[in-house]
Structure formats: C-alpha cells, structure tokens
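Propose amino acids for all 611 sites.
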C-alpha cells in the first residue's frame, strides 16, 4: 500500500509538471493569437448569457463553456451593443453583435479575448487531471504518465484547448460522463448513479453532440451485462431469455434515472440564461430559425413550448439540437485535397487524422494494434469470456471511439479534426493500457544459459521496451513542439509539416483567422504603407491594421503591390468543384500560381508582392 501511495505521489508530481507545461504553452497562445472565427460570436454570446441573462445569440451551442468564459468579463467595465438593431431586431445576430462587442471601438478586443480564454484553458487542464487519474486506475503510474504525456503535448489539444469553443470541453464532457457511468456500473450505489446523471447533464450543457451519449450508454450497458454482469440461470432458452430481459430492463430503468437527473441539471442553467429573454421574442426568433427545419413536427412542438413559462428553458435546449441537425443536413463549404464541396467525404476524418496527428502517435497506435492482436491470437486458451471480463472497460472505451467516429464520418460536416477531439482522451487511455501491458509482459529469466540467442532474448526485456517507448514519446513531444506556437497549423511529416498542410485541408485545421495580429506586426516591421487583404476570419482587419489595410476583391486592377490572402480563401480559389458544388467559382486565385509568396504568416496567411 505504501509503495502504491509513493508511486501515485511521484507520478502525480510528474503529471503536474507536464500539465503545467501544457498550461504555459496554451497561455502564451491565448495571449498572442487573434480572436478566431467562432470566438467572436461565442464570447459575445457568453457575456449576454452570464451578465445580461439573455439567450438570443448563438443558440446552436449549449451555454456552459461560453458562460464560464464570460465570468472574468463580468468584472470589467464593458460596453455591449444592446441598442443595436442586430440585437433588438435581428434573428440570432451573433456575428454582427460579436464584431461590435469586440471590435466596435468601445472595448479592448485583445484583453477580452485573452480573459475569455482562461475558462476553456482550465477545463482542458481539468481533462488532463481526469485522464491521469483514470489511467492510473487502469494502468498504474507508467500508464498514467504515458497518457498524460500524449495529452499534454498533443498539438490538437494545444491548439484548441485555450479557445472559446466547445471542442476541448466536449472531450472533457465525454470522458467524465463515461467515467462516472462506468463507475456506477462497477458499484451500483445511488450516489454513483447521481454522479453519473450529473456528469451526463453537464455534458449536455457543453456540446450538443454529447446527445450521442444516450445511444452509447445503452450499448455500454448491454455490453457490460454480456461481459461482466450476466444473470445466473439454468434451464431452457425461454428461461435464459427472461433472465436477460429482466436484467436489461433493470439497467434501462436506471439509465432513465441517469437521463432524468441530467435533464434536471440542464434546466436551471437554461432558466438562468433566458430569465431576461422576453418570452415573445424567444417565440418569434425560435419560429424564424425553425421555419425551414427538415423536422417540422419537432419544430412546431419547440415553437409551441418557447413561450410557456415552465417549458421555455427546455424549448431553448431543444432549439439548439434542431439547429445542429438543420446545419448537418445543409453541409458546409470545405476545401479538401484540392477539391471544394458542401457535401462530406467519408474519408475526410481518417485522412485528416493521419495528417494532423504526430507520426509518432500513428506509430504507437499501429504498434499497439499489432501487439494486442498478436497477444490475443497467440493465447492458446483464448478464453473469450475471461478476456472480455478482464478488459470490459477498455472494450467500452473502444466502442465509444468507433461509435463517435462512425457518426462523424457518416455526417455531413467536414470542418476539422477538432470534431473528433472527444475521442482522443479515450485513445490515449487505451494506448497507455496497451503499452503498459506490453512493457510488463516479458521479464528476464536469470536461469537461461548464456548463449547468443538467450542474450538476445534477455535484451528484449522491460528496459528495452521502456527505451522504445521513451524514444517514441520523445519523438512525439519534439514533433508537436516543432510547430509551436503555431499548433493550430500543425501537420505531421506525411503532410510535409505545417508548411505543407494547406495543400490538403484548411479551415480550422490550419487557418481560423488566428494570425491577423502577426500579419499586422509584419506590415509594421516592413513599413508597408498599403496592403490588400482577403482575410478568413471574424476579427476586424482595420482594428489591427489601421490605415494600411485595403480590402482585396481580386479585380485585375488590384493585382499588384502587397497582397495578403488567408490560406482558406486561397485554396478555395484554386481548386476544383466536387459533389455538385456550384455556389461560386473555385479557380479565381489560380493566377497566383505564377507567383511565390514573400512570406507565409503563421502558415495561414500568404503574403505576396507583385510589381
């Protein structure tokens, strides 16, 4: 017990150092990078929820992360455009209100963005703590430190962790909800059920994709019954069927309780955010938003409930879900592998994962699959019942990854590797378990004769394996930090690094408007008097570039002098149409192929000088 306690304390101390390093890396980016596309409406919406208690902005995302981000802002003397028509008359005028709130000239946009980023940054670190603790339970100190290292230096988490979006929060929501469900499955007390229900409710307040926990929990319970809690019975097939049916019905009843607790958690938060949102305005805006909903029956029910005093919070909650479904049905314009389309590619997420995650992680993943598969195939007994019972939790984690990936690949939104971020902590935990099991799997037998073959076998011991793991982790950390502070633009060696990523994908994988301030610094450094800019982002270019900025509309008369074009705009303008895309031309920037950029700011903004 003392040894285990010492092991935990030492590993916890090392993990604290790793997470502190991660926090420092994220903090620097939070202080230096421009407000990215989604942050402009999210920050304004969060302020309106927390301070004004009005939910008319950004209802397509749950409120919790945005509300937490607004807490530091509540103590600042800020001007919010509540008299503007985009607030008083527009339906979900989030983009305009966000731009006015941050860049309208009354507030300091840089300060607002920095302080708003503190909450998601802390939530990301909290995810690291939970990952460490759970992995320690499953794989001990070594496994916990492996998982923490993979997390702390993940370029994807370093990129998205400090941003005022729901992506890193969704990873915390998924892992914590699953953790507390499994904790209840292992020890079915009312306290653990309450924890599971609360975690489920909090998850629903973070990202609407967490509704996928509902079918996942159902599948998890069935798998748990089959692997760990089979009813004891004997007799005929009907008797067996009745026994399983009773067991499943019992678990289903408890799942309903977990869901009910979750809905109770959701209610007061939504009630707070609509307490100053007039009922008649809520109904009018809900009706306008859902006017063209592909689910008319559900839309009518939500509109009906939107002005009923007791139902209004749930109506706003349901509105967000319907907006997500509506958006998924409509798709999103995206550049992928030289093509532009609104319809999704099935291979999008596997391709982006293979290009955006460190090659060291892909190597570890491949090795883990081979080792686990070989171990299972080489097991002469191959007792599936025992194997399934031993690794039931790992099987449930793998099911979540497969399920979430399957839904993402079948969906119609291809806007970034961030959308599969909730699966990454599950992957780190599974890899840590597999690696730890492999390292501990072979021990030196001192009784072996000193032949050349036996010496080779002796070298193939725990220390050699630890060395291999250490080299792979060092490669992983070095690869991630080699792109820092441009973590959002990270691409691995297969893509040619951050410099080559733009050829494959753009948008939030590379260019989310984060480098506008760096462009302004470049313009000042070079004493550029006039530069024409085609910027992909919601930050205000004049706010940062003052008199030097001119909009670039790509007319022949403008194709000279200094020109800056965001990678997303550039690539969508020198691509080919795919899947029937015909919204606008996709070749309008092909003429720039004849020119080499003077520089590329942060890998995301191409700067040209054309005489």
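Proposal:
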């Amino acid at each position: 017990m003392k040894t285990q306690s010492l092991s935990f304390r030492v590993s916890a101390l090392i993990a604290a150092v790793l997470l502190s390093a991660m926090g420092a890396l994220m903090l620097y980016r939070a202080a230096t990078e421009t407000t990215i596309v989604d942050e402009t409406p999210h920050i304004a919406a969060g302020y309106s929820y927390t301070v004004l208690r009005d939910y008319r902005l950004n209802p397509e995302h749950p409120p919790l992360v945005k509300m937490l981000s607004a807490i530091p802002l509540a103590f600042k003397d800020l001007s919010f455009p509540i008299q503007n028509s985009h607030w008083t008359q527009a339906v979900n005028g989030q983009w305009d209100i966000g731009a006015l709130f941050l860049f309208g000239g009354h507030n300091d946009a840089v300060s607002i963005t920095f302080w708003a980023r503190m909450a998601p940054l802390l939530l990301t670190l909290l995810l690291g703590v939970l990952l460490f603790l759970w992995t320690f339970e499953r794989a001990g100190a070594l496994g916990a430190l492996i998982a923490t290292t993979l997390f702390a230096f993940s370029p994807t988490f370093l990129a998205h962790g400090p941003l005022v979006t729901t992506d890193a929060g969704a990873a915390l929501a998924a892992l914590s909800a699953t953790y507390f469900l499994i904790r209840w499955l292992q020890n079915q007390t009312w306290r653990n059920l309450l924890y599971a229900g609360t975690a489920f409710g909090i998850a629903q307040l973070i990202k609407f994709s967490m509704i996928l926990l509902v079918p996942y929990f159902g599948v998890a319970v069935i798998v748990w019954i089959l692997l760990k809690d089979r009813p004891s019975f004997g007799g005929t097939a009907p008797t067996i069927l009745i026994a399983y049916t009773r067991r499943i019905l019992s678990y289903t009843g408890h799942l309903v309780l977990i869901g009910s607790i979750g809905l109770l958690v959701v209610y007061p938060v939504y009630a707070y955010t609509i307490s100053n949102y007039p009922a008649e305005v809520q109904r009018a805006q809900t009706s306008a938003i859902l006017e063209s909903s592909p689910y008319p029956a559900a839309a009518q029910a939500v509109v009906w409930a939107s002005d009923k005093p007791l139902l209004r919070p749930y109506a706003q909650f349901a509105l967000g879900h319907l907006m997500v479904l509506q958006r998924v049905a409509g798709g999103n314009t995206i550049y992928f592998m030289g093509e532009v389309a609104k319809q999704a590619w099935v291979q999008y997420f596997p391709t982006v994962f293979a290009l955006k995650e460190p090659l060291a992680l892909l190597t570890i993943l491949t090795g883990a699959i081979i080792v686990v598969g070989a171990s299972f195939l080489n097991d002469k007994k191959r007792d599936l019942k025992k194997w399934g019972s031993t690794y039931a939790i790992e099987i449930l984690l793998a099911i979540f990854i497969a399920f979430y990936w399957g839904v993402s690949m079948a969906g119609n939104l291809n806007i970034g590797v961030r959308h599969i971020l909730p699966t990454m902590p599950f992957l780190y935990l599974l890899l840590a378990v597999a690696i730890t099991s492999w390292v501990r799997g072979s021990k030196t037998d001192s009784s072996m004769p000193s032949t050349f073959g036996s010496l080779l076998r002796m070298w193939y011991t725990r220390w050699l394996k630890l060395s291999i793991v250490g080299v792979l982790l060092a490669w992983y950390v070095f690869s991630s930090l080699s792109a820092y502070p441009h973590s959002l633009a990270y691409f691995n060696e297969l893509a040619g690094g951050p410099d080559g990523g733009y050829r494959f994908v753009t948008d939030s994988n590379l260019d989310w408007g984060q480098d506008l301030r760096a462009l302004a610094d470049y313009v000042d450094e070079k004493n550029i008097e006039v530069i024409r800019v085609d910027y992909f982002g919601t930050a205000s270019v004049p706010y940062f570039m003052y008199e030097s900025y001119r909009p670039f509309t790509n007319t022949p008369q403008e194709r000279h002098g200094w020109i800056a074009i965001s990678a997303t705009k550039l690539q969508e303008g020198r691509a080919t149409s795919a899947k029937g895309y015909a919204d606008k031309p996709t070749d309008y920037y092909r003429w720039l192929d004849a020119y080499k950029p003077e520089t590329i700011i942060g890998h995301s903004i191409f700067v040209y000088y054309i005489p």
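The first strand starts at residue 334 and ends at 336. The radius of gyration is 26 Å.
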